[in-house]
Amino acid sequence: QVQLVESGGGLVQAGGSLRLSCAASGSTFSVNAIGWYRQAPGKQRELVATIRRDDSTYYTDSVKGRFTISRDNAKNTVYLQMNSLKPEDTAVYYCKAQWITTDGAFASWGQGTQVTVSS
């Protein structure tokens, strides 16, 4: 129902910045929240940040003050601005759209974009 494509990953040195983009298509009118997750080798997927329809946001403690999630509704795109990057931020970053119907909760995932931070 909703298709997501992430972009913007790459290799940066510690202290640098990247901006990730998540472009959505399909039945985007049904989406009530977009989240950024990340998964490092040997670790489970971790929620990084979310933004809801009312533009309220959430950040995990490890990225507060460094990352900012935002959206451009006209472009159906959500961004994750990442500043002051640390080696421990290295992971594959995934975009997730979620929606709820009377039948339950549903989610769609992008394929991910690699972020590598060197020390």
Order of helices and strands: EEEEEEEEEEE
Class from secondary-structure proportions:
mainly beta
What distance separates the N and C termini?
40 Å
What composes the largest sheet? 7 strands, mixed
Q: How many whole angstroms does the radius of gyration measure?
A: 14 Å
Helix content: under 10%
Average pLDDT, to the nearest integer?
Answer: 95
Our estimate of the beta-strand percent is: over 45%
Number of strands: 11
Low-confidence stretches: none
The helix count comes to: 0
Shape descriptor: globular
Keywords:
mainly beta; seven-stranded mixed β-sheet; 11 strands
Write the layout of secondary structure elements.
Blueprint lengths: L1 E6 L2 E4 L4 E9 L6 E7 L6 E7 L4 E3 L7 E6 L4 E6 L8 E11 L2 E6 L3 E6 L1
Parallel strand pairs: 2-11
Antiparallel strand pairs: 1-3, 3-8, 4-5, 4-9, 5-6, 7-8, 9-10, 9-11
Question: Can you walk through the features of this model?
Answer:
The chain is mostly beta strands and 119 residues long. 0% of the residues lie in helices and 60% in strands. It contains no helices and 11 strands. It has strands spanning 2-7, 10-13, 18-26, 33-39, 46-52, 57-59, 67-72, 77-82, 91-101, 104-109, 113-118. The strands form 2 sheets. Strands 2, 4, 5, 6, 9, 10 and 11 form a 7-stranded mixed sheet that branches. A 4-stranded antiparallel sheet has the order 1-3-8-7, with no helix packed on it. A hairpin with a 4-residue loop joins strand 7 (67-72) and strand 8 (77-82).
